[in-house]
Amino acid sequence: MAKIKVTLHKDGTQKIEVLNASGEDCVKLTAPLERRLGGQVGEREFKPEYHEREAVVETDREHEG
């Protein structure tokens, strides 16, 4: 089950981290929260899990055709 970890820093910045999710699911999960926090994403850092799922999708497509 995916979880969202939010860290609020004293300087007013926030960090949103997705746990137990991969690929575009991470971005989809955080989108509503990002909008509620003001809609601006200062820096987006993807974990290895994001790229792992993308690689699986590409590999599946190669075997289809």
Polypeptide structure, described:
With 65 residues, this protein is of the alpha+beta class. It is 45% helix and 18% strand. The protein has two helices and two strands, in the order ββαα. The chain has helices at 25-36, 48-64, and strands at 3-8, 14-19. A hairpin with a 5-residue loop joins strand 1 and strand 2 (14-19). The chain is globular. The protein starts with a strand and ends with a helix.
Order of helices and strands: EEHH
The main sheet comes to:
2 strands, antiparallel
Report helical residue fraction: 40-55%
Shape: globular
Class from helix and strand fractions = alpha+beta
Contiguous uncertain segments of 5+ residues: none
Total DSSP E strands: 2
Number of helical elements: 2
Kindly report the oligomeric state of this protein.
Answer: single chain
Name the beta content range: 15-25%
Instruction: Give the CA-CA distance, first to last residue.
Output: 33 Å
Biggest sheet, strands in spatial order? 1-2
Mean pLDDT across all residues, rounded?
78
Rg, Å, rounded: 15 Å
